[in-house]
Amino acid sequence: MAIASIFDGGELRKQFQIAGINPNFIPSIWKYVVQNPNCDWDDIPSLPSAAYPLLRSHFKPSTSSLHTVIDSSDNVTTKFLIKLQNGSFVEAVIMRYDSRLGKYGGKPRSGGPRSTLCISSQVGCKMGCKFCATGTMGFKNNLSSGEIVEQLVHASRFSQIRNVVFMGMGEPLNNYSALVEAIHIMLGSPFQLSPKKITVSTVGIIHAINKLQSDLPNLNLAVSLHAPVQNIRCQIMPAARAFPLEKLMDALQTYQKNSGQKIFIEYIMLDEVNDEEEHAHQLAKLLETFQVVVNLIPFNPIGNLSCFKTSSEHKVARFQKILRGTYGIRTTVRKEMGQDISGACGQLVVNQPKKSSMGSAGLLTDIEDLHL
């Protein structure tokens, strides 16, 4: 049996219970490991004597390691290539923002500089979305809760992380148990993230959406909709065949009724596929009974793998104008970050970067601030 990550909370609590050790010691162990990443278990003070041999035989401070760190030329994005215990790799991305930039409700924003971490939940992905580089990898394996949390631990050594978005490699709701456990750990000591600062993105796994609100109340849900009608959705997202649009919208209606929160709608703009005026009107009518924020995402090329083209700025602006101006739907256009290091939306796929460009970080306004 492989030695587990200390951040695999379920396994740690189980072993403590078997050994009769008070689980209240767990947050202090995590805090020590975060502050002292290369520690030996014997270095941690004030634990019961039975805890030390248990930790040595069952757990590692980290089961993953940073293989490569690369900064993009936009000076605000850092991508991590992380090697897992089984030899596989995943990617995570830090995006730095200044929440004071721009306006909110016509008024200047409050806040200041902070960072958002985009986290992976699987090695590869089963969904096979045709516009997404990760989908070309196929599905390799789920991450454990510890491997998910370790991405936050690694990133925290580079920047103070305030927001976490599960928009990296994999479909988070297809790794439901590990996702829920990892987020519960992030909400507690020593990380103390607010659920309002965590966003989980999904293609629309209906049975998981149905229980998400009760298992993880108050976090943000983002749905990768990407088309206003079922047939287009199936063309670009093969997994959509298993989750018919009508049933998905019913599940989202129930979720919103129970949570009372806005839902984020992610919509990738593909030239001559889903970006025409007709599609904007169809999308607006699909969402007319919801409280949503629509996030239009310019398509990021994925080299020779891509059979799509990026919508023109004119088309994106026209699409936004219809949603916002005609129907009053709050609509943003995602600021692209990290394209040159394949760290932008839809570009995460395990490749060894050829070079690293380091620079001082500037700051942008963050679309994730929309729900603050």
Structure description:
With 372 residues, the chain is α/β, with parallel strands linked by helices. The protein contains 10 helices and 16 strands. The protein has helices at residues 9-19, 26-35, 51-58, 145-156, 176-187, 206-215, 230-236, 245-259, 277-286, 313-326; strands at 4-5, 59-60, 65-71, 77-83, 89-98, 103-104, 107-108, 113-118, 122-124, 139-142, 161-166, 198-202, 220-224, 263-269, 292-298, 330-333. The protein has a 10-stranded mixed sheet with strand order 3-4-5-8-11-12-13-14-15-16, covered by helices on one side. Strands 1-2 form a two-stranded parallel sheet. β12 (198-202), α6 and β13 form a beta-alpha-beta unit. The radius of gyration is 21 Å and the shape is elongated.
Computed CA radius of gyration, to the nearest angstrom = 21 Å
| N to C succession of SSEs | EHHHEEEEEEEEEHEHEHEHHEHEHE
Helix proportion of residues, in percent?
25-40%
Please outline the major beta sheet: 10 strands, mixed
Please tally the helical runs, counting DSSP H or I stretches of 4 or more residues: 10
Strand content: 15-25%
Distance between the termini: 43 Å
Average the pLDDT over all residues and give the rounded result: 88
Going across the major beta sheet, what is the strand order? 3-4-5-8-11-12-13-14-15-16
Class based on secondary structure composition and strand pairing: alpha/beta
Question: Low-confidence stretches at least 5 residues in length (pLDDT < 50)?
Answer: 341-348, 352-372
> What's the count of strands?
16
Shape: elongated
